[in-house]
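Working notes for the structural subgroup meeting. M.R. asked for a predicted model of this chain before we commit to crystallization trials. I am recording the input and output together here so anyone reviewing the notebook later can reproduce the run.

Input as submitted:
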Amino acid sequence: MSPWIPVSEQLPEDGQRCLCHLPSNQVYLPGKSGATEVRAVVILRFLKDHFLKNASKTGYNGAPHFWQGEGTSNKFFAEVSHWMPLPEAP
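Returned structure, recorded in token form:
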């Protein structure tokens, strides 16, 4: 059995950091060449009902949840298909 959990079956706890699968997550590489690569697995924080709590501030009317990036991936991710809890540290 795969450790990946489809978002259609279960969502993480509010505020939980997890590994997320984004099948088409294209990121720009450093430099000015415009080169990109697909990084399909990233660490994101799940914010349950973020847009329901902040609807008057954002004007957004899509999915109620928010997947928040970290570091160089600090943006909204709507295309998360699967997730899994972060493994325990050694």
